[in-house]
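Open question from group meeting: does this chain pack into something compact, or does most of it stay loose? Before anyone orders reagents, we agreed to write out a predicted structure and look at it together. Recording both the input and the output here so the notebook holds the full record.
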Amino acid sequence: MRAADPHPARAERPVALVTGVGRTVGIGAAVAERLAASGWDVAHSYRTPYDTRMPWGVEDGAVAAVGAAIGAHGARHLAVPADLADRAEPARLFDRVEAGLGPVTALVMSHAESVDSGLLDTTVESFDRHFAVNARASWLLIREFGLRFTGAFGTGRIVAMTSDHTVGNLPYGASKGALDRITRAAARELAHLGVTANAVDPGPTDTGWMDDPVRAETLARTPLARLGTPQDAAHLIDFLCSPQGQWINGQLLQSSGGLK
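Structure tokens returned:
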């Protein structure tokens, strides 16, 4: 059964582009499905070679499963492979989405390069790749969005997934810090378009990367005594992308259950 559209005033579905949707258990997949349930058509990018070199590996059939979950809500969907370390990829990605679904009204950036290393053992190559994917690509995606946006004033949305983790995860945390500043700049520099831009820090979210010691430590530090889920982040992003979320702009939102 198709979920009720909470935005019945929309004559047709607007298009959301969600990056970094390569696994069904990830935040990106939860966001894509939640937006589809709320009345959006959804394009999503993925990068299989990244999953290949990560501990969790490639999830067979994940891209098709995400598309099926989006389609179950009556939404059109488009999956696009994208190497965001390539500086030309953001423009190509927007070209593909516009050709397949139409102009983008919401950009949700859930992609990331994340390889654990600290001050003393991070390589220059890894540092550069983190900034290329997490910061430079995000800036280029936001730039493409701003250059191409033709929607009604007040309808455009940008949401970036960020993190405050730095110790033992230096290139990831540092590049996410740069992403925060880029996103906050967009909230002011795209004001003439009526586009809102916010960053969301979901805190430690159990998407399969946690081991037992990390789970135990996180539970001990969280007043609600549970782990964050992809759906927690998805509900917040869905609200930010809705008409009701228009007044929230230029913010870094902590959504971590009161984690200390």
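Observations to bring back to the group:
DSSP finds eight helices and seven strands in the chain.
The CA atoms of residues 13 and 90 lie 23 Å apart.
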